[in-house]
Amino acid sequence: MKIQKFEDILSWKKAKELALQIYKLQCKTSYGIDIGFKDQIQRAAISIMNNIAEGFERGSKKEFLKYLYIAKGSSGEVRSLLHIAKDLDYITVEQYNELLSQCEEISKTLSGLIKYLYNSK
Predict the structure, then answer these.
(1) Domain 10-119 belongs in CATH node 3.40.50.720
(2) The whole model's pTM is what?
């Protein structure tokens, strides 16, 4: 399947789902009380999907790759913040495991896309 818009990209779809879950968590957990933490994890989660979209829309492989790496970095930032959220009991171990797994999957799909783009003409 040819990707014609950023919404077709699997990594973007997975990042959107992660961002939605991060936003929904604030209503169900105590991390919503910690405004600084809440803002940071939400910004990092949104950054993943937005950088995929922005890079795709830039129209060049070089720019797309640059933004995919930024998105991958943001995925790592979310993973790092999840460790803190778990350690501060902002989220349950089950929530942590689920969200961490999603972040790892996003990073893997981004790595695959990056590798594909490097190897394409």
Answers:
(1) no
(2) 0.92
